[in-house]
Design a protein that fits this description.
Elements (H helix, E strand, L loop, with lengths): L3 H9 L4 H17 L7 H12 L6 E7 L5 E9 L9 H10 L4 E7 L9 H15 L4 E8 L3 E3 H4 L3
Length: 158
Amino acid sequence: MPNVQSRKYITEHPMTAEQVLEKAAEVLHKKYLVGKALTSSQSTKDFLQFKLGQYEREVFAILILNSQHKLIEYKELFFGTINSASVYPREVVKEVLHLNGAAVIFAHNHPSGESEPSQSDVKLTNRLKESLALIDVQVLDHIVVGSNASSFAERGLL
């Protein structure tokens, strides 16, 4: 329970909406880093919405998981422009190998707010899936974050 002095600080220095979202993302990140398995599609989408939803340019991220689908690390790998980001399968494979991942979830945002996967999103996901299959790493999902979050797995696109 906050003491009187900390309540006074909070009242005099209210957090901005962006700061609240950053703190929420930190809490979610810590919650999953302490060994929780990513078994809920909705909690994964919520986590990614907090992490990627505020960017004004495309960002491609990866959640690297162990064999029990517990989060090893969330990593933002590629940064693009307002409507695209270049993603290099070689760099994705290197990062997964470096962290000894057994499974991954891809994610990227659409700054336009549209969460519908594009044809290029589907092609990229298939290319990454093929690359990671060579090293026995399973692709569990690809989440597109817009005004809401859309799952490839839920749409039958994987």
